[in-house]
Amino acid sequence: MIKGYCTSSRGMVMITVIMIISVVLLLALSMVTVSTNHYQMVHSSSSGIKAYYLAESAIDITTYELLIMSEQAIFYFLTDLQSYKIQYILEGEEGDTILLKDYHPPILENYLEDKVVDHLSIIERRITQPFEEYHASHYYEILIEGVSLSTNHIQMMGIGSYDEARRFIKFVVQLPEVIEVGVDALGLPEIEVVPLRVVSYYQTFGE
């Protein structure tokens, strides 16, 4: 009887040990699964952040390039405007009096079309592996989505890709525009040129 009791006790202990080991294994497996999922989430989040920075970099570089191009257009416009005004005044002089005639100065939009809009193809491009510190496969890209000469708007999309993550940022730039701020002593318009600026900027979920 005692022998049977001992055998039964050993059997119960063995079952208990097996159950404890099973529970420990299940807990360990759960911890490994949670850790793996957490790592994947962190990795995915890190890749997404880098992809977003790449899209932002594309926008910053493109905006800078457009700014340089538009400043060149403004320079030529103001130079020609000054020459036109001088010639206009000289041609209108009779003695000490300036006879005003039809005033048709240069138009900034023509210069913007020639120096900026007609060269947008060099803006639209993809640059691969731009950052040495980013080890995974990555790139940024700019797409021209629309140009409106009536509103002087250029709508674009910046795309950033890092590993398997992609981020998209849409943005719109307003090209420089002329505003009249008064008249000079001859009654001719005095103007100011408002420089290029970003008027819309938001993240989207795809093309």
UniProtKB/TrEMBL annotation:
Keyword Transmembrane helix: yes
Record keywords, A-Z: Membrane, Transmembrane, Transmembrane helix
Residues spanning the membrane: 12-34
Domain of life, source organism: Bacteria
Keyword Membrane on entry: yes
Protein name: Type 4 fimbrial biogenesis protein PilX N-terminal domain-containing protein
Protein species of origin: Alkaliphilus metalliredigens (strain QYMF)
